[in-house]
Amino acid sequence: MEVFRYSQARTVEGAVRSGGAAGSSFIAGGTTLVDLMKLNVLQPRALVDINGLALDRVEPLPNGGLRIGAMVRNSDLANDATVRQKYAVLSEALLSGASPQLRNMATTGGNLLQKTRCYYFRDTNYACNKRQPGSGCSALDGFNRIHAVLGGSDHCIATHASDMAVAMMALEATVHTQGPKGERAIALDEFYLVPGDTPERENVLLPGELITHVTLPALASGTRSRYLKLRDRAQYEFALASSAVVVNVSGGRIERARIAFGGVGTKPWRSREAEHALEGQETSEEVFRRAAEAAMADAKPLKYNAFKIELAKRALVRTLKETTQAA
Amino acid sequence: MSTSIIGAPITRIDGSLKVTGAALYAVDHPMDDIAFGVPVASTVGNARIVNIETSIAQRMPGVLAILHHGNTEQLFRPAEQLEPSSRAGEVRPPFEDDKVYYYGQYVALVVANTFEQAQDAASHVKVDYEAHPNVVEIAAAQAPEGPPRIHYSRGSAGEAFESAPVKIDETYEIPTETHNPMEMHATIAKWDGDKVTLYESTQGVVNHQHVMSEMLGIPLDQVQVIATFIGSGFGGKLFPWPHSLLAAMGAKRVKRPVKVQVPRSLMFTTVGHRPLTQQRMRMGATRDGKLVSIQHDVLQPTSLVDTYVEQCTGVTTMLYSCDNVAAKQTLVPMNIGTPTPMRGPGIVPGLFPLESAMDELAIKLNLDPLELRLKNYAEQDESYNPARPFSSKRLRECYQTGAERFGWSKRTAQVGSMKRGDEVLGWGMGTATWHAGRGTATVRVRLNADGTARASCATQDIGTGTYTIFAQVVSEKTGIPIDKIEVVLGDTSLPDGPTSGGSTVTATVLPAVTQATQGAIDRVIAAAQTLPSSPFKRVSAGGDPPTLKMTAGRIHAADQPPESGMPFQEVLAQKRLAALEAESRTAPDPAEAHKFSAHSFGAQFLEVAWDPGIARLRVTRGVTVIDAGKIINHRTGRNQILGAVVMGIGMGLFEETIYDPRNAKPLNNNFADYLVGTNADIPELDCIFVEYPDLHVNEYGARGIGEIGLAGVAPALTMAVYHATGVRVRKLPVRIEELMAGQRTMTA
Question: Which of A90, B36, B42, B232 can bridge B463 by disulfide, Cβ–Cβ 3.0-4.6 Å?
Fold first, then answer.
């Protein structure tokens, strides 16, 4: 770990001012940042602590949606009564991630920005374009069992690690920020970037731009949702494949479906292909399977991770079955 | 006082110290003026060090010294081949020369005022290597080195196999597995003149003392090793590793105590591991299921700096009755650290192919796997010539008890035939065994005038409950309550005690504690008989002095109730003695040891639930029945067995150290990426002891139980997996992708 300056922000404006300086980084729960600082993977020159900002509330919106402060802890969000009742997929995703201790620290804003678990990103002795642009990718011909089959490039195949973001992708969440140029609202689907030839850029945030809150739209009555995470062990492991489903069924037909995957993409992976394959169709295993095939049509297997493609399909089929069965 | 305290589920006498944080582990020992050592480890697997650039690090705040091969005195190699009581984890001392043999090898040590300063400076030491290609995969390795390390043969296994009507010929593989005790390896070294004290996390303070004396080149009496509490070891802490020498060298250089804690990442490189084993198992049988031939061939990597043989084939020579058995083990040196025993060494990895092949044979023969085992039950240990009787063997009862408890008779043999909702159940079973060893121990017991007692021995408690069984024996013999008995362990200044390994400590120390306690009682009795106003004279007025004994803490005439006598502390008070103590050294009788083969046995039954739609496998039930003679403490004993089963589930489903062939790095060198079972992976587990005291081993009839609970789990698990999925996993761990590949025809 390198020496760094530390300051506490008292206002959002102050945070944005301090956070905009070169080499600065915001720190919230610290569950990713401190870990990577210890490994010398991230070496910020200054940390701006945003734990004192009053961004820790979950509030209903007049339009029936939900506003989630960036500093709401993962455990609090997962156990929020409204989230559990209306946005089950989000609660399930949060509770499937990390461990209770980590969830007690990790925040909503921080979770959206968490870093990949790629072995090669986390070790400064390896070439890694995400950590050191232009140095190469050690995962391409390395042990890539945990790596992405969707959204990868010749420069990076690291998966995005978040479960929460996958659920929020299926919920069509919006990220609200405040930056040097004022406030912005960014659809989550447009928030993340695929690696292309700039894997060091993971999202559209500008220097000093701070996530202040996330909003979820209202869901039509009767909407059902579910998150299923598949992995080697039962707890405390990142997804090999996960599926988030938000679906409305009427008269045996799927009216609306929002589908996202975790563990398989270089970003939380929304699948419009699967949604198109489902909407207007009858609920049947054949339809679900067709949607799963559509979702994974562009998947590119590597030496060790081909099984993830089939695993993700099965996760989707199972979550669709569970959310479309008669209640 | 009844003898019920032996065997009772007594809570650990050190439990409250542990849960309150008062127990001092190696790095916890308070020390004035301590400095911190952080090693610099190699980032390549095979190289020559061209240059170590320390100029930047040297000038960083708080840095006291940077040690490496270019600026340190040569240490010595251990005398382990010549001196039977010493063994090092790795015979090459750190900084011996400019060679790098494996990734993670120590190439320098930074000593600084604080841990953070040392770590920061260590990251600024730049090492230039002349790198050579690594070999970390057995397929890429050279031809096996030299002749086989182990060669065993009885009968004509090759011929018998050729002519056998039913045959199995399969190769099984267990990957490299890494010990991951909660407490990482650590040392505090403190020099006082030419004497060094090492606070060490070790399973054997006495062995550690010997090795350090040899490698530092100083007399034995100038080395003291202390391990008051150990956060477990699983075999990884049996023998000293180089960090202990680093701490001693660093402390000598900076003339201050130095603390070195091995970080979790280097726990995967520099302190041993269970080596990968490739094991070919050939088995021949008659059509009615009688084994006629077993051939077991093992290929195993070792390091380039030391030789370690994982003795997998021993169990094959004794577990089943078979006239023709051959075994062979061969080593392949590779660019990895030196392997070392891991819980159940040899037998645990050896049983996986043996028990798996038995299941595959049972399927071929259309026999119940349990029935096949009973058909080939070994009444004697046939590995000896002539065969030796077992000191005590109740394996048949273990099978029967386990089968009844588990409900084995309800098993339907056909793959995928047992269902529960969406899930398919799989049932498997395995045989467990572990040899019953016993060594030498010296114990001192002191009875104090304040009514308390103290037992001491250099042996250590690695978390298994050794402190508690010492107190149990003293309490049982004297009647002094457990909470008035102090047990002092883990210090070479105490009478010599055994290494905590091979499930031998309990069997080894019980006789010594018993004899020393009796010795101390005898001295109090002698004192009582010479009291000027002895109450015992009255009892025996006119006759011979009565025979005295000690019960419930009181000295009394043997033919009178305890209440008639007096508390032992009153005897001491009247004699104006602070205490009376006795020391006793006990060793196994070699003549007895050669008459019998002493082993513990067990049967393990597991259920898995397989959800084919999402390729999810979970262990849902487990029953273990153990025949280990008398169980001294049912609470800590059960804890040993259940903990081992948990480890076995990890071995079967999760554990694998994955090396990067490009630089020999263990990629998953942390607790997030190296998977072991979490609470959510472990179902309710059942443990039953069939208790037949084995009096050939010691007077309580107790054999060890540290390893055996792990022995049959992995083969039982893969057998259950086969029963549920139809996929035979011969290469551990069981992986989702392998199960999915096996079910291509199934739909979600």
Answer: B232
- B400 CA to centre of own chain: 28
Do A314 and B618 count as a contact with CB atoms less than 8 A apart? no
pLDDT band for B83, please (50, 70, 90 cuts).
confident
Confidence of residue B541 (pLDDT cuts 50, 70, 90): low
Which residue of chain A has the CA closest to B649? A233
Tokens of B337: 């650290």
- If 0-12 CB within 10 Å is exposed, 13-18 middle and 19+ buried, where does residue A28 land? buried
Establish if B536 belongs to a structural domain.
yes
CB atoms closer than 10 angstroms to residue B572: 22
Three-class secondary structure of residue A206 per DSSP: coil
Mean pLDDT on B186-209 = 98
A40, A235, A240 member nearest B736 (Cβ): A240
Contact A313 B668 (CB under 8 A): no
User: What is the C-alpha to C-alpha distance for residues B490 and B456, in angstroms, rounded to an integer?
Assistant: 9
Cα distance between residue B355 and residue A309, in whole Å: 34
pLDDT, tens digit, 9 for 90 and up, residues B376-387? 999 999 999 999
The CATH number of residue B518's host domain is: 3.30.365.10
Considering the domain boundaries, does residue B736 fall inside one? no
What would the pLDDT profile of A256-302 be if each residue is shown by its tens digit? 999 999 999 999 999 999 999 999 999 999 999 999 999 999 999 99
Q: Which domains, from first to last, does chain A contain?
A: 5-49 (3.30.43), 224-324 (3.30.390.50)
Which structural domain range is residue B576 located in?
439-587
pLDDT for B2 equals 47
Residue B705 counted as domain residue? no
Annotated catalytic sites of B, by residue? 707
Q: Chain B residue closest to A243 (CA)? A: B614
Rounded CA separation B336/B272 (Å): 9
Q: Do A234 and B615 make contact, defined as CB atoms within 8 angstroms?
A: no
pLDDT digits (tens, 9 = 90+) for B466-509: 999 999 999 999 999 999 999 999 999 999 999 999 999 999 99
Establish if B696 belongs to a structural domain.
no
Contact assignment for A314 to B123 by CB distance below 8 Å: no
Q: Do A234 and B681 touch (CB under 8 A)?
A: yes
How many structural domains compose chain B?
A: 1
**Type and span of the H or E element at B296:** strand B291-303
- CA-nearest of B731, B736, B737 to B139 is B731
The torsion angle over the Cα atoms of residues A48, A53, A55 and A56, rounded to 10 degrees, is 100
Regarding an ipTM greater than 0.90, the answer is: yes
**B44, B658, B667, B743, best to mutate vs chain A, most A CBs in 10 Å:** B667
Q: What is the DSSP letter of B563?
A: G
- Smallest Cβ–Cβ distance between A232 and the set B654, B660, B747 belongs to B654
Chain A positions with Cβ closer than 8 Å to B: 1-3, 40, 117, 119, 123, 125, 138, 142-143, 228, 230, 232-237, 240, 285, 289, 306-307, 310-311, 313-315, 317-318
Question: Do the Cβ atoms of B67 and B249 come closer than 8 Å?
Answer: yes
Helical ranges in B264-346 per DSSP H = none
What stretches of A41-200 show up as alpha helix (H) in DSSP? 74-78, 81-86, 88-96, 100-105, 108-112, 164-170, 188-191
Residues of chain A contacting residue B615, judged by C-beta atoms under 8 Å apart: 230, 311, 314
For residue B619, which phi and psi values (nearest 5 degrees)? Answer: -80, 130
Map tokens 């949060």 to a residue.
Answer: A94
Q: Do B665 and A228 touch (CB under 8 A)?
A: no
* DSSP 8-state secondary structure symbol assigned to residue B222: G
The pLDDT score that the predictor gives to residue B148 is: 84
Please state the rounded mean pLDDT for residues A144-162: 98
Strand order in the sheet with B485-488: B485-488, B453-456, B441-448, B579-586
Order of strands across the sheet that contains A224-230:
A224-230, A241-250, A253-262, A269-270
